[in-house]
């Protein structure tokens, strides 16, 4: 019955799609007429996701019932799929021999201290002198480091660091926060490499303060070893930035020290490459025993760190559960059509957030220069906050601020992951009522996400109109295509998206930024395109898979047919000009952005699928990288007859697997447990149900997409239903 209703609904949708494009977009409401209470979360039709390629009926299927139903493996620039295959750290290259501590202390440091006095002043010079004398005397003083005088001059702190590197290699330095927000202090401690294994001066972390030491530059680094450690990061149900933030905290280094090519969906199991400067693999590998939902491995040293955009795409393994259709042939035909024809390359719902205030509405306010309105959209209560308990708490905090205007009180209550909101309130604390300055206080990656979202909103509507007006069988006059004559290179650019201010971007921001791949925001820039002519159509050299549409900017052209007008018509409804800026803030102006192009139709590569029967709804149906490692270790037990090796394998792999998969243990660094991490939708048997579980069908898909494509849009083409999280939760 449900399948028949879906089929009837699909036929109705197809009839709607045959309307002239002018009618199709007449129902799109301008920004000013939309109210917060009109919806609890963004719907596909709100952001221009309207059409399908095939006319085949959809079928029922549940997306992401378990986060292990959505597996993502990065594909590097050479086309290799990134997997976690080993947790073992390689044998480190022997470090250069260091001078013994006693030999270092035999030197006369008086001239050096006098030079330091000229640089740092009398007080700090005396501190250093006493510290050296203390170490030389062998007294086990309670202080294992000294703090130099607070200083807000970054160049002076750099000079101090360089002084120790060049003239006092006996010590290493790092920087910690000073007594006030505008100053920092240089911390000086004995080089741990000079102890020759002795730990007589070591203290527990809790005894020396919360901030661990970052001493990666303190040791000489072998010239034959690359200065960057590259490793594979495996994570379950965690955002990339969240996982790297945890690793950084445990290692005592800043999260921005890690380099990566792109973020991955939070609600998934993913594996990707990460680099970090001058870190020994053994230190990182040792964390595996303490990590929950994260594993690191496949270590090697390389000369260069990763930057955003250095990937070819992602390999997806997606399992749709509770699949049902009138006939199995409908499923097979739909899957075959997806592999052969592909899907409309829409920006998915992740781009627009999950609350009642979609990110593109905030972007529209920014483009109009309505700073106060934009701040209100970010801070005010929204309907989506009442869907979950944690968000209900957030809603009450938002309501408190709206009613009281109490900045300090709100900051004390507001969760730290709400980075945009906290940045605005921190600015209000210093500059009350300065709305533009408050918006500019938001980390650049995040604040630009709002404007990129509005560009995506226009692109989606233009793509829908292109399909509605001209179909998907051939190119037409006025279409834009890649210029094959010049074989323009696809250049992935991510410069606009990096956290240049060094601020943390590991946020949900109530817009599910964690589900948005940062590289999704970078499209094909500096790519030569051309307008289709009669000669091109006769020659037949271009196909629908060459068609592109622009993301508005100053260096793009629009299609020379009706599709080009859609951009201007929709922007006009929101009182936005695509040609002129309404204010003087360049950052929030389309005329100051280069713009980009994006393929309209996308076909999945290396496409494979299979139908599976299952009875246990909570059992994983696809193997993750960790499953394969655990299985390999288990198989080793049976093959290896050596008792010592059996013990080694058991302690190093089986117990690790049990801890990772089954035990509810607490992380010493985060207090998080496996129970906290588990967000799968558990299906319970109704009272009085049959003891024998009913067999169900699952569809497992494997395919590769380029970085800017959304796998959820491929699934949408199959099911012909919404890809929203709320919709698929309701199916359960």
Automatic annotation (TrEMBL):
This is Multisubstrate pseudouridine synthase 7. InterPro entries: PsdUridine_synth_cat_dom_sf, PsdUridine_synth_TruD, PsdUridine_synth_TruD_insert, TruD_catalytic. Belongs to the pseudouridine synthase TruD family. Residues 179-223 are annotated as: Disordered. NCBIfam families: tRNA_TruD_broad (TIGR00094). It comes from Sesamum alatum. GO terms for cellular component: nucleus. GO terms for molecular function: pseudouridine synthase activity; RNA binding. Residues 197-206 have a biased composition (Basic residues). The keyword Isomerase applies. CDD domains: PseudoU_synth_ScPUS7 (cd02576). GO terms for biological process: pseudouridine synthesis. Keywords: Isomerase. Residues 207-217 have a biased composition (Basic and acidic residues). Residues 342-603 form the TRUD domain.
């Amino acid at each position: 019955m449900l399948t028949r209703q879906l089929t009837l609904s699909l036929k109705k949708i197809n009839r709607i799609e045959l309307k002239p494009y002018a009618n199709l977009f007449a129902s799109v409401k301008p920004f000013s007429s939309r109210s917060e209470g009109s919806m609890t979360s963004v719907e596909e039709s709100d952001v221009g996701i309207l059409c399908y390629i095939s006319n085949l009926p959809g079928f029922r299927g549940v997306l992401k019932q378990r986060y292990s139903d959505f597996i993502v493996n990065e594909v590097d620039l050479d086309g290799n799929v990134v997997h976690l295959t080993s947790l073992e750290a390689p044998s480190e290259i022997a470090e250069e021999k260091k001078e013994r501590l006693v030999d270092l202390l035999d030197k006369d440091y008086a001239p050096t201290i006098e030079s330091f006095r000229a640089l740092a002043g009398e007080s700090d010079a005396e501190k250093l002198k006493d510290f050296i004398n203390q170490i030389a005397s062998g007294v086990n003083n309670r202080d294992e480091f000294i703090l130099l005088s607070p200083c807000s001059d970054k160049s002076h702190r750099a000079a101090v660091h360089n002084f120790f590197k060049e003239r006092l290699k006996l010590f290493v330095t790092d920087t910690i926060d000073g007594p006030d927000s505008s100053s920092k202090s240089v911390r000086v401690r004995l080089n741990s490499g000079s102890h020759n294994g002795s730990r007589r001066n070591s203290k527990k972390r809790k005894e020396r303060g919360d901030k661990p030491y970052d001493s990666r530059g303190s040791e000489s680094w072998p010239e034959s070893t690359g200065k960057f450690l590259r490793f594979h990061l495996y994570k379950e149900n965690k955002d990339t930035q969240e996982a790297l933030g945890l690793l950084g905290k445990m290692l005592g280094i800043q999260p921005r020290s890690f380099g990566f090519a792109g973020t991955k969906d939070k609600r998934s199991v993913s594996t990707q490459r990460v680099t970090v400067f001058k870190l020994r693999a053994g230190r990182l590998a040792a964390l595996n025993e303490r990590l929950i939902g994260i594993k690191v491995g496949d270590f090697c040293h390389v000369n260069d760190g990763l930057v955003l955009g250095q990937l070819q795409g992602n390999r997806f393994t997606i399992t749709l559960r509770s699949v049902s259709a009138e006939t199995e042939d409908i499923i097979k035909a739909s899957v075959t059509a997806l592999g052969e024809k592909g899907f409309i390359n829409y920006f998915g719902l992740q781009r627009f957030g999950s609350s009642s205030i979609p990110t593109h509405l905030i972007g529209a306010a920014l483009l109009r220069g309505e700073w106060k309105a934009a701040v209100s959209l970010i801070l005010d209560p929204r309907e989506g906050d009442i869907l979950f308990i944690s968000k209900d708490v957030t809603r009450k905090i938002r309501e408190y601020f709206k009613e009281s205007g109490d900045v300090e009180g709100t900051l004390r209550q507001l969760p730290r992951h709400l980075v945009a909101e906290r940045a605005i309130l921190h600015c209000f604390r210093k500059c009350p009522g300065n709305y533009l300055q408050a918006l500019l206080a938001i980390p650049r990656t995040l604040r630009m996400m709002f404007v990129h979202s509005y560009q995506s909103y226009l692109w989606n509507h233009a793509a829908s109109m292109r399909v509605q007006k001209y179909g998907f069988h051939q190119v037409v006059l006025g279409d834009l295509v890649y210029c094959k004559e010049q074989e323009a290179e696809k250049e992935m650019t991510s410069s606009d998206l990096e956290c240049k201010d060094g601020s943390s971007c590991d946020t949900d921001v109530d817009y599910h930024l964690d589900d948005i791949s940062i590289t999704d925001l970078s499209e094909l820039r500096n790519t030569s395109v051309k307008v289709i002519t009669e000669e091109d159509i006769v020659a037949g050299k271009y196909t629908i898979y060459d068609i592109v549409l622009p993301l508005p900017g100053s260096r793009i052209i629009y299609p020379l047919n009706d599709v080009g007008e859609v951009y201007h018509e929709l922007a006009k409804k929101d009182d936005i000009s695509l040609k002129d800026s309404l204010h003087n803030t360049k950052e929030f102006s389309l005329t100051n952005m280069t713009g980009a192009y994006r393929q309209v139709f996308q076909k999945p590569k290396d496409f494979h699928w299979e139908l599976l029967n299952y009875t246990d709804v909570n059992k994983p149906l696809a193997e993750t990288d960790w499953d394969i490692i655990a299985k390999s270790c288990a198989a080793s037990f049976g093959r290896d007859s050596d008792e010592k090796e059996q013990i080694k394998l058991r302690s190093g792999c089986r117990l690790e697997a049990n801890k990772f998969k089954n035990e509810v243990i607490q992380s010493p660094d985060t207090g998080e447990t496996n129970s906290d991490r588990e967000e799968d939708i558990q299906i319970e048997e109704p009272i009085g149900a049959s003891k024998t579980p009913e067999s169900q069908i699952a569809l497992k898909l494997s395919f590769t997409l380029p970085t800017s494509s959304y796998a959820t849009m491929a699934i949408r083409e199959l099911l012909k239903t919404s890809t929203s999280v709320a919709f698929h939760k309701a199916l359960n």
